[in-house]
């Protein structure tokens, strides 16, 4: 029999925050260490953030009792005691120190304290009906279940592990009404409720502080790992980027986002002011691969600028953002400022059409992006597919380092980054450098145990194999390494399980029509195409880059300034890394991340991204007079 904790959703009673995930977590949920906690502590858990029960504690105890056989702290059900691997990415912050192994009952160990805290968050985060949060001075609200729900399948073993609410098309009215309560001029703007800019500075400061607590960041990293399997470092980096982002918008930094300007007019009393104006009711749709970073950064950006968002995260991973919203509420986020829905794409599409948000930010596949762009008649900004290229220039150097960056770019998170290296153009000078052999060796270090390779959530093994086979029909193509399914695993068939794979395709063949479409198809998994070019073939490489449709990230790996200048000057990708340490992946909070070459292109992370995506320009021309004393009526014009 499964041990379960059931969870209800928050409803903003007065303002329609409605129908949230009804999450039901089985005993395999990794973050619960109830068995190791003394009874007294179980009754009164130490929480990373404050939670208050609206009713008696009885239900909590009941819930606790169902957790007593819960176990591991590792994301892997099969190998619960796996330690986080050693740091593999110098560009990422070092991992938290791994706690020493201790007795199961030694509640004083640092590791256990983290487990206990993490468990407390999960347990209370998935509180039964009757629980309600009381965020500082805000309206009361609670989480409630929708009529229907879906079981999520554990990507690691196929077991049912999370039961998520599925709001149906017939249940969207409260969301529509809630959005309709927000005027087009937003919840705040430079001329209305400016104190809310400061409030958001405060909320960011508190949330940054909370997320910076090792027990909280560890909790979120493990929760991310559990639903979107990736190595501990990759998951933790996502939390740390989110934390730094929040730090960046503390204090006055939110109001500085809305900095306006004034231009003197033509006569006394006239001046024009340019303002960053909100859109008011807005929608945010995000995918599965960054369960915390993408929705959090976009939601906060929307809120900072005065909008009221309804957020939909891919249901497979929405528990992570649900937990984050609870944290934000406790840091002062007014419950009525945002809505959170769990539904499938069809229902969300319906909601968009009925609620008519003034702006929608979509992050996900190009297929859905194009449909929504048409349905919403262009009132949308897009962060869509990435077919990301890397060009190795003629100057061969730092081969070990570059092999490692290639491995990280193509295969970290099992290739499920929109910025993942999809194609590598290698100058012929690299052929004898041993680069490909080194990349092969590095790819073979990846293993399921520490999730350096793991389940692919949107492409099956069969689909990846078929894609590889169609590439192999192209003359001169061959498998460089990988090309086989993972072995000895229990990943269910609905997900993919493939060894890190590289397929070589000759450049001239890539450019042939028919072949080009196959080669440049985004495979959201551990898969890349490799090719070579001679000195006089750079034009062909640039032609290939020009013909691609997705212009998200790119890397030009060279320290030859003329080569860099040439390639950068004749390409467009929105986030392009240049220089010998260039990579294709990496969306930290300190630089813009987003596609270019598309007027609908959005961005994430920086003040510029927030202003571009979440505000429109409004100009107010003040003309207060006085009217000149000698003014006379002019003739008609
Ligand atoms: N450019 C970026 O910043 C970025 C970041 C992450 C992922 N991606 C892209 O996302 C894709 C992988 O994610 P995915 O497969 O989950 O994408 P997806 O397009 O299938 O789903 C993304 C989100 O859209 C929702 N959705 C689906 N159909 C919808 C509809 N008709 N109306 C409203 N919402 C709908 C899904 O439920 C999900 O929440 C890849 O193509 C990847 O490159 C891009």
UniProtKB/TrEMBL annotation:
<feature type="region of interest" description="Disordered">
    <location>
        <begin position="34"/>
        <end position="108"/>
    </location>
</feature>
<dbReference type="Pfam" id="PF00171">
    <property type="entry name" value="Aldedh"/>
</dbReference>
<dbReference type="GO" id="GO:0010133">
    <property type="term" value="P:L-proline catabolic process to L-glutamate"/>
</dbReference>
<protein>
    <recommendedName>
        <fullName>Aldehyde dehydrogenase domain-containing protein</fullName>
    </recommendedName>
</protein>
<dbReference type="InterPro" id="IPR044638">
    <property type="entry name" value="ALDH7A1-like"/>
</dbReference>
<feature type="domain" description="Aldehyde dehydrogenase">
    <location>
        <begin position="152"/>
        <end position="577"/>
    </location>
</feature>
<comment type="similarity">
    <text>Belongs to the aldehyde dehydrogenase family.</text>
</comment>
<dbReference type="GO" id="GO:0005739">
    <property type="term" value="C:mitochondrion"/>
</dbReference>
<feature type="compositionally biased region" description="Basic and acidic residues">
    <location>
        <begin position="34"/>
        <end position="44"/>
    </location>
</feature>
<keyword id="KW-0520">NAD</keyword>
<dbReference type="InterPro" id="IPR016161">
    <property type="entry name" value="Ald_DH/histidinol_DH"/>
</dbReference>
<dbReference type="InterPro" id="IPR016160">
    <property type="entry name" value="Ald_DH_CS_CYS"/>
</dbReference>
<dbReference type="InterPro" id="IPR016163">
    <property type="entry name" value="Ald_DH_C"/>
</dbReference>
<dbReference type="InterPro" id="IPR016162">
    <property type="entry name" value="Ald_DH_N"/>
</dbReference>
<dbReference type="InterPro" id="IPR015590">
    <property type="entry name" value="Aldehyde_DH_dom"/>
</dbReference>
<keyword id="KW-0560">Oxidoreductase</keyword>
<dbReference type="GO" id="GO:0003842">
    <property type="term" value="F:L-glutamate gamma-semialdehyde dehydrogenase activity"/>
</dbReference>
<dbReference type="GO" id="GO:0004029">
    <property type="term" value="F:aldehyde dehydrogenase (NAD+) activity"/>
</dbReference>
<feature type="compositionally biased region" description="Polar residues">
    <location>
        <begin position="63"/>
        <end position="73"/>
    </location>
</feature>
